[in-house]
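Take a sample.
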Amino acid sequence: MSLLISPTELSDLLHSDRPPVVLDVRWALDLPDGRVDYRQGHLPGAVYVDLDTELAAAPAAELGRHPLPDVETLTTAARRWGIDDGDTVVVYDGASNQSAARAWWLLRWAGLADVRILDGALPAWRAAGLPLSTDEVTPTPGQVTLQTGSLGVLDVDEVAGFPASGVLLDARASERFTGEVEPIDPKAGHIPGAVSAPNAGSLRPDGTFESPATLRARFAELGVAEGVPVAAYCGSGVTAAHLVAALSLAGFDARLYPGSFSQWSGLDRPVAVGA
């Protein structure tokens, strides 16, 4: 089943007998509430998703800034979005799907089979000349049943030893990996043994994903290979989901470290600096 969907493919589906549930997941570290942007224009029928409250549990130093929500909380949110069992779900955000990938990963982790990312996000929809809406969308509540565990995760103790047996990829910008800057977490640097793999390297200039062949070549240069375990982390487990998606497009099944560097540094675990 395809992970990505193009704007024209989505537009056609929206006019079908059973249109997909579309989720608007606009969020940024410096602007976590995307409702203002959503109200200024969103895909027709798209439901706004609050990443901080619906796609994460409350932050805590011992868990990280965006711990995974429990299945009851996620189920309540998914039903509010109008999702029923068997539905196709499409997620997007306002830029390059860094936050939308969190919704993709969570719903796949919770057992939904057909969850897709709008390739190129909102800019691609606009570039295709497709319409936007300013309507506030309140869907009929769904009855979806979720059960977590369909995708692999690592906890903080498992990730400590992971680089010895696999490849641990860091999705953050390179200057955060090296420790040159750290805007929010208690320490600067990276998990010892991790490899820098900024999400920007998975995207073309227009914000769409690189081809599977290009992605596979990129990850091969970083040490990813058949039969070698691979996992991804970031600052708080949000944008690492984007890296997991890119790895999936390249043909690799990667695990996610949900606590990511915010949990690791919050627990005062050792960090490395430099390239």
